């Protein structure tokens, strides 16, 4: 249709003028190595922090489950898609996170789109860190709640806003990433937990980038010297676990509510049983090899030392550039040196904060980390 195509072409050309048009590149991944548009590159842009997508035990569990059960789940979990492996995986996740129960969703994004509207509605409040992941914002918007952002990790600001708004809403949620996906820093969870409780607000922590790599592999809630009070711990199976899917760990009653009311669980097909089997095998590895969980952060810290940057707090290290064109140029420079470090641009990050987002894996060779550190220091940051 003419008007439709004109609309799409007009939008695209405006984005291209701002260097914000995106394109998909053929990528075949072999763990940390990629065939990227025909070039072999060492990737610092994957979230497979423990390289578990390539682990022999994880692959074997996946193949065995496909041989036994086939591929697709065939229906929603509430119809015929609730394979018994769900119960096994949910028990394992709850144990790992120290909660009564867990609920597995189709992805991390779908989890937040299901969880948040099942808990709050249009009369309620969602206080959200300004840098929280897009799916937290999407869930809060879907709930039609009043959304109040607080400055990134600014406890004093969050407290003032809670004090101002809490009394006007019957229910309130405080939502944050545990490890921030584009910045790599951790949320101050002990203080946020106390503050939320004081205001009778429910703290939701998105631990997509914490599970498997901080807190001895148990995630950001376990990364502090004191126990942290987080009633809603959600995350993904698709990053350090190397598989696909999302989850919420919480009390039994909250989980029962999700299985009755979360629309992304009810109206979407269950995960393929092989993804459940693979996730269980990946959790086995994390629990049996706790030292492995520390390697991505150790590698990130080796890099930050070499590049003369502040110590990494997680396996994610942002290299702040600012302008979009400069970030794209830095990414191209690294590509010429054999590294993939994708430039992250608005709207994924705020205007004026385009960056290279580096993510470190347990499998990165130390000499390559040091070579990358030298390049970033001397040719990207020009120190
Ligand atoms: C913080 C955060 N939450 C949620 C998600 C979504 O998870 P998934 O990829 O499983 O949809 C991501 C990344 O994709 C993320 O970085």
What can you tell me about this protein's structure?
The protein is an alpha/beta fold and 383 residues long. 44% of the residues lie in helices and 17% in strands. The chain has 15 helices and 14 strands. It has helices spanning 2-17, 56-69, 77-81, 84-97, 108-119, 134-143, 155-165, 189-198, 252-261, 263-266, 273-288, 290-293, 295-307, 324-336, 366-380; strands at residues 27-30, 33-36, 39-43, 101-105, 125-129, 146-150, 172-177, 202-206, 232-236, 246-250, 316-322, 339-340, 343-344, 354-359. The strands form three sheets. A seven-stranded mixed sheet has the order 4-10-9-8-7-5-6, sandwiched between helices. It starts with a helix and ends with a helix. Bound molecules: pyridoxal-5'-phosphate. Pyridoxal-5'-phosphate is lined by residues 107-109, 133, 135, 177, 181, 206, 208-209, 236, 238, 246. Pyridoxal-5'-phosphate (PLP) is lined by residues 107-109, 133, 135, 177, 181, 206, 208-209, 236, 238, 246.
Summarize the structure.
The chain is 44% helix and 17% strand.
